[in-house]
Amino acid sequence: MSLGCYQTVLFPTEGKSDFSSLNPLKNSQLKGNKISGVKFSNFQVSQRRKCIPMKLKSLLSVDSAVEIEGKEGVNTGSKYDAIVIGSGIGGLVAATQLAVKGAKVLVLEKYVIPGGSSGYYQRDGYTFDVGSSVMFGFSDKGNVIYVLNNYEILESLDLFFGVCLSGEEICNYFLAVSLLIYITWIQIQGNLNLITQALAAVGREMEVIPDPTTVHFHLPNNLSVQVHREYSEFINELMSKFPHEKEGILKFYGECWKIFNALNSLQLKSLEEPIYLFGQFFQKPLECLTLAYYLPQNAGDIARKYVKDPDLLSFIDAECFIVSTVNALRTPMINAGMVLCDRHFGGINYPVGGVGGIAKSLAEGLIDQGSEILYKANVTNIIIDQGKAVGVKISDGREFFAQTIISNATRWDTFGKLLKAENLPKEEENFQKVYVKAPSFLSIHMGVKADVLPPDTDCHHFVLEDDWTRLEEPYGSIFLSIPTVLDSSLAPKGRHILHIFTTSPLEDWEGLPPKDYEAKKELIADEIIRRLEKKLFPGLKSSIVFKEVGTPKTHRRYLARDMGTYGPMPRQIPKGLLGMPFNTTGISGLYCVGDSCFPGQGVIAVAFSGVMCAHRVAADIGLEKKSPILDAALLGLLGWLRTLA
Ligand SMILES: NC(=O)c1ccc[n+]([C@@H]2O[C@H](COP(=O)([O-])OP(=O)(O)OC[C@H]3O[C@@H](n4cnc5c(N)ncnc54)[C@H](O)[C@@H]3O)[C@@H](O)[C@H]2O)c1
Ligand SMILES: CC(C)=CCC/C(C)=C/C=C/C(C)=C/C=C/C(C)=C/C=C/C=C(C)/C=C/C=C(C)/C=C/C=C(\C)CCC=C(C)C
Prior knowledge:
This protein has a domain at 19-135 and 352-433 and 585-619: FAD/NAD(P)-binding domain (3-Layer(bba) Sandwich), CATH 3.50.50.60. The protein has 18 helices and 24 strands. The protein is an alpha+beta fold. The strands form 7 sheets. Strands 3, 4, 13, 14, 15, 16 and 24 form a 7-stranded mixed β-sheet that branches. Strands 11-10-19-20-21-18-22 form a 7-stranded mixed β-sheet. The radius of gyration is 24 Å and the shape is globular. A hairpin with a 4-residue loop joins β15 and β16 (399-407). α7 packs across α8. Lycopene (LYC) binds next to α8, α10, α11, β19 and β20.
């Protein structure tokens, strides 16, 4: 998840902006305004995971990437094609995509390094991911040959004949056919490896380590499920836990594959750009209609069509919760389809050296394209002239101007802080009616003695011990990532990293005197560690050699997200993705990108939002085809559709 932990003990004062003391790069040297010489230890890739699909190139050397221009370096009066506020993955993808189309872009980042919730920090020889380490959309499967597996074949046959055949009947009857088709290669476009594509667009490539298990669930009634990379292994394991629901399981996950395959076959660009959108409908009518059909639907409703067992439905809730912070009934089916299949299609892959390398590589690539990135640049206002966004002002008083302004701050921050309240467009009012801020997180970054982990421990765990009703409650579910299982170079020899997080509202942490605040952090962290010790790793507490606890206040401050929120979540049951705004806003020249835009939370989701945003902006500044009449018609139609959500 996105929430990072910077040491609140060191930086307890809200609003203080002495960034020199916050340098997360303990091994780097800050030379004036330029960060240089970040060196990572030798990358020792676990031999257990042999397959390394991509080659390491220019990873994590920020000598040229993190070029921080000084006051004199950036020409504040010059006109850029676009200014991007914030260098989260959403902002960086929008910026780099625009830069490769020929735009001159300036990214303004409040912090000292890029990445936002996908950043990193270093302490005592550990390299910690600020957010979690589960990377979707990061495979080499793009424009590839794709193999159908048995379950998809059965599902397609079932669809084709329009009948409900039992799993066993189908298996016997079509075994021979199925085996034949199994080895038939079917050419489809693979387009969902968006992180890989975003890096490749600016000539970057990262070595990744395939994760054999996306997540290991430890759930009530001693339900333990490992989500194996291989789809058939996962489905077999799930069916073995719920043998009476075999058919329902195949049908629910089969429906996810229909969505995934439709998505994966489209060329992904802005759904707000009519020439592209109509073109896709023309080229791939079935796929587009499939997506249009699922657009207003939620995963929980579809699961209930096929599944009756309450524990299995709760399992599907947990599957959805880890990617949307809400249960399946409130998770858009398109998003569920995307994540529940990509983990088996491209698989989850961890970048060697840590997640922070993605943002660094994008920032490097941006500069290579002739664009600029300025750190310690806290945007305080978006400048509006005659109803159009024309520039921004940063906290030291400097102003920058551009044809378009793209905000990677959340919509609440953009419209609540960077613009005056009277500028709140109707569309934003609607958004705030349909979506609320998801709670923030408590995160614990730890270094532990390696021998506390049993051999073959999985990298990611989700723990909810006794009571399904606690799934969405604060401190109810525990997320745990151990990235050193995949990449041992992230910690000193003989140590592992444990990154633990759980939902926590900001309100729990406000108004406490510093001593009570520290005591509360220790108390809650201890309880979480005790639960993990009991469930997973006996002796955990005594194995801790390093520990830092971040609270919602930490996240609000260092990620610049209102209330430290993880992202938007629907206020009530949503109509799938229908109510989620795209990138244009009610203010001419102002665009939003990131997790409060379609399709929502998640690194791959914000990367898609960046791709969409760059396409729409490029059309508006004349770098892509555009039709003003069709634009007006489509934007009107989409605005109207959103009011139905
Ligand atoms: N797979 C995972 O587990 C994982 C890990 C990390 C992050 N995430 C996802 O990433 C998503 C967030 O990505 P994102 O791109 O929307 O944004 P982000 O919050 O990660 O980044 C926004 C950036 O904008 C900067 N910023 C904000 N206001 C600013 C201002 N006024 N002036 C200058 N800079 C400013 C912040 O410092 C930050 O760097 C989350 O929804 C989360 O789901 C997921
Ligand atoms: C326009 C109209 C109206 C219509 C038309 C139709 C069509 C064509 C449509 C289309 C559509 C589309 C293209 C769509 C797309 C979508 C997408 C791409 C989506 C995506 C999504 C994604 C996501 C959501 C993701 C997420 C993720 C996440 C959040 C993650 C997280 C993770 C974590 C937290 C981890 C955990 C950990 C542990 C367990 C430790």
